[in-house]
Amino acid sequence: MKSPHAIVQPWLLSHPVPSASINKLPVMVNACTGKMGKAVIETAEINGLYVVPVSFSSEGRCGGDTYLTYPLSGKEFLVFGPSSNRKKILKTIFHHFPDLIVVDFTVPSAVNANAELYSKVRVPFVMGTNGGNRDMLFTNARDSDVYALISPQMNKKIAAFCGAVIMVAEKFPESFSGYSLSAVESRPAIDVGVSETTKCLIPSFKKLMGVDFDVDKVKSVRDPKSQREAIGVPEKHLSAHACRSFTLLSPDLTAKFQFQHFVYGTSEYAEGAAAAVHYLHSKVYLRDAKKVYTFFDALLRH
User: How many structural domains does the chain have?
Assistant: First the structure.
């Protein structure tokens, strides 16, 4: 098999940046074949981004050291499998595009390894993938001194919703003392386990109630039939939706408060990811002393 440099360099040279995108910020989107990767790529131009036509696949897309070409949004992508020499490939791309930022929407099992790769090459990255060891993720990013924005939630409205809940809990602790909490979330069947967004919110609801509530009490709805009938998710959005409902109920059952959202599709997540890229680039450009950020930082930039 040819060396990564012998494959990637000619590919990049044969796919020059179009004149209309020459001043746009270059991004590498991993994995381009997934629903979020596609969404970021399809909206890149209107969001001021130029997508480099190379991507690393999530597990199962390419076998062994192989690679393939994948058509998407009017261009051909060179997609490398999980066992390819990613470090050399990424170094070649980063050399070709010194302002590169990597956008990661892969799979939970790849989160920490991918972040470690980006850190070793010292390429700034936006990690939007759920899962992995989050403490290790943040610690390794800070220790590597690389610019990174890490957040499992790239939807501006949902992030603002989360921020509102957190602020209410900080300002009015135990204001729902004695109430009980029930939490339900529905996400695509492929997304296993309780989401990082819901995990982030549970401590705030515990603070509001002044009692413990374990994450394992969250009802995770992943069955498409239940999502349609019990949650009300439209058939066409079963593969891309995020619905959460937190219900606070008084001891005598006379008062009920609900915090909930129902979001379908991927467009607002793609817009949020683009905003995260531009925000991180501004920090790289200014050589900001702080290196690791969350999506809340991007929301509060003004």
Answer: 2
Distance (Å, whole) CA 58 – CA 50: 21
When pLDDT is averaged across residues 56-71 and rounded to a whole number, the result is 71
As a whole number of angstroms, the distance between CA 69 and CA 128 comes to 24
For 90, other C-beta atoms within 10 Å of its C-beta total: 24
Identify the CA nearest to 195 among candidates 170, 213, 169, 222.
222
- Residue closest to 150 by CA, chosen among 163, 165, 139: 139
pTM: 0.88
pLDDT-derived band at 49, boundaries 50, 70, 90: very high
Alpha-carbon distance of 35 to 19, in angstroms, equals 28
| Domain CATH code at residue 168 | 3.30.360.10
* Residue 290, CB-side half-sphere exposure with 13 Å CA sphere: 10
* Dihedral sign of CA atoms 18, 23, 29, 34 in order: negative
Domain that holds residue 9: 4-150+268-299
